[in-house]
Structure formats: structure tokens, C-alpha cells
Amino acid sequence: MPEWITSDGLVPYDQALAFMETRVAAIAAGTAPEAIWLLEHPALYTAGTSARPEDLTDPDRFPVHVAGRGGQYTYHGPGQRVVYVMLDLNKRGRDVRCFVQALEHWVIGALAEFNVKGEIRPGRVGVWVARPDKPALADGTLREDKIAAIGVKLRRWISFHGLAINVDPDLGHFSGIVPCGIRDHGVTSLVDLGLPVTMADLDLALRARFATDFAPRCGG
């Protein structure tokens, strides 16, 4: 099992990147164990390798950081559990698609602990929640809201970055970007769904579901 690290307070984004760089190098060298880091960031936007300039609709609202992870624009801020996964895919199976799917299933398993049905959609990385309580889209399609974003990077088959799960962030802060480049659906959180879930509650669920919902899927 990896080392679990939990940070109190808000961790600056540059500090988090520096920590991951150092830890991933140590994992690759065999001098440190794998790690899963649970933290929160101050309000900011990150641009993944596929980010499109037009999707940053309010560039002066919060600091914008260029991230080496895959994906497009994402918001991070207080009330959102960021989960950085520094895992060795040399030992867990060198299969990027399997790895991303394992992360998705892990989140879905953790959400199930609160009776939330998280779902995945072809062509849309992340975890979604159907919203029959909201008006349907113009074409009659059921509206869906994103509750968790996923974006990863690999170096020497060691993973960087990871997950962002909305517990109780200010959902209005997402309006400065087109989250993950998807305009037709919105974002939600556990509290927005009417669930009084705390960060500590989610952390316990993530730890409880890791071995069963993540590790076996890629040969761990």
C-alpha cells in the first residue's frame, strides 16, 4: 500500500508541484514508497496539455497555472479534495487507459459510500452525476453534472497529479472557465447534492475503497 499523506490548510500549487517532482523521482530511484496526497489548494485555475485559450473565460479572476497533466482547464479551491497519486505503474501494469479507468472506478466506489451514483461517459474523462432534478438540455438530453475531474501525467511510468473531487467548493468559481472543455453540462458537489459530507468523511471513503476499487484493476 502507498503512503497516505494529508495536508491541513491550503497548499500553494507551486509547492505541490515541487513536492510531486521530488517524490516521483525518489519513487523511480527506489528510495521512497508510492504516495497518495490529500490536500486543498487556494482558488486557482490549471491548464492541462489540451487546454484551449477560449475556454479561459475570466483570465483575471484567479491565478492560472500551466500543469503538465493531461486534460483541459480545471478549477481548484477550498472545499475540493485534491488527490495526487504518485504510483508506480511499472509494478501496477503499464497501461494508461487502465490506470485512468481505475481512478474513475475508485472515485465511483468512494461516492457510493454516500449513496451517490457516479458514472463515466465515453469521451468525457471524469465522474458524472445525472441530474433529473434540473431542466433537460435543449435536445431533451438529461443534464449531467461533473463531480470529479481526473488528469494525470507519467514519467518513467510513475504518475503525477490525479483527482479533484468536489465536496463543498464555491461552484460559482467554475464560471471563469469551461471546465474540461465541456459546455453542455455543469458541475456539482456532494453538498450541492444535499449531502452533509465533510472532507474527513470523503478521505475515509477513499482509503476504504482504494484496495478494492483501484489496485486490482491494473495488476496491483
Overview of this structure, please?
With 220 residues, the chain is an alpha/beta fold. The protein has 4 helices and 11 strands; from the N terminus they run βαβββββααβββββα. It has helices at residues 13-29, 89-92, 96-112, 199-213; strands at residues 3-10, 35-40, 44-47, 64-66, 73-76, 80-86, 119-121, 124-130, 144-155, 158-166, 186-187. Strands 1, 2, 6, 7, 8, 9, 10 and 11 form an 8-stranded mixed β-sheet that branches. Helix 3 packs across helix 4. The radius of gyration is 17 Å and the shape is globular. The model has no long low-confidence stretch (mean pLDDT 92).
Question: What characteristics describe this protein?
Answer:
globular; 8-stranded mixed β-sheet; 3-stranded mixed β-sheet; 24% helix; alpha/beta; 220 residues
